[in-house]
């Protein structure tokens, strides 16, 4: 999420097939540090969010949206097999909001978050895991074509690599991961976070802290920030950030 991030927004729109500029099956990656929200066919229901750098094939496009296919692995205890069945196979429904992994293992990379009650096509099973698939529409601006990767932007010294937000009514909660891209060891990092709505109107400021004996080069740490007094009914926020830090002297 930053400006520095990319907007995620809901819109009411009907999608129809119009693939032309992009060859069907072209692989794209989620750009930046913000997840790509995937909407249903009506454009007004959120299915899930593909995490940054996640790869998805584009199978259709309409206006400013791409239709993507999302595959991943989920534990059998996270889904309920559905009676829904057609010529293509069987389906399951998510019991609660859950995450799809890129491999059938507990320590596998987290690929995508899926909302509660989403219907997933079952592709196969392996032990306690099920490989599933869903498709939906996402904004073109959130993706970049894998085969035409832009030149890598140098990483920020203290970089927020992933984040999410929650509207608490009278405040907004930010949870995320920060990485030390320097060759220095820190014991204190202060993040100064600013959020805005999709029109770039300020919603407020907040702070988060990483305090540890040694925050070493290449390491990641979690953080939480509360933006008091901030509230929005939109399904979209922008975030920017800066930081202060104190070295250990090592």
Summarize the structure.
With 250 residues, the chain is mostly beta strands. The chain folds into 2 domains: 120 residues, Roll (SH3 type barrels); 90 residues, Immunoglobulin-like (Sandwich). It starts with 25 loop residues before the first strand and ends with a strand.
How would you describe what is shown here?
The protein is mostly beta strands and 250 residues long. It has two domains: 120 residues, SH3 Domains (SH3 type barrels); 90 residues, Immunoglobulin-like. Helix content is 0%, strand content 57%. It has no helices and 18 strands. The strands form four sheets. It has an eight-stranded antiparallel β-sheet with strand order 6-7-10-11-5-4-1-12, with no helix packed on it. A four-stranded antiparallel β-sheet has the order 2-3-9-8, with no helix packed on it. β8 and β9 form a beta hairpin. It is globular and about 55 Å long. The N terminus is likely disordered.
Number of strands: 18
Mind telling me the CATH class of the largest domain?
Mainly Beta
Q: How far do the termini sit from each other? A: 32 Å
Rg calculated over all Cα atoms: 19 Å
Helix share of residues?
Answer: under 10%
- Which fold does the CATH topology of the largest domain refer to? SH3 type barrels
Number of domains: 2
Share of β-strand residues: over 45%
CATH superfamily of the largest domain: SH3 Domains
Which secondary-structure class do the elements indicate?
A: mainly beta
Order of helices and strands: EEEEEEEEEEEEEEEEEE
Estimate the mean pLDDT confidence: 78
CATH-derived architecture of the largest domain: Roll
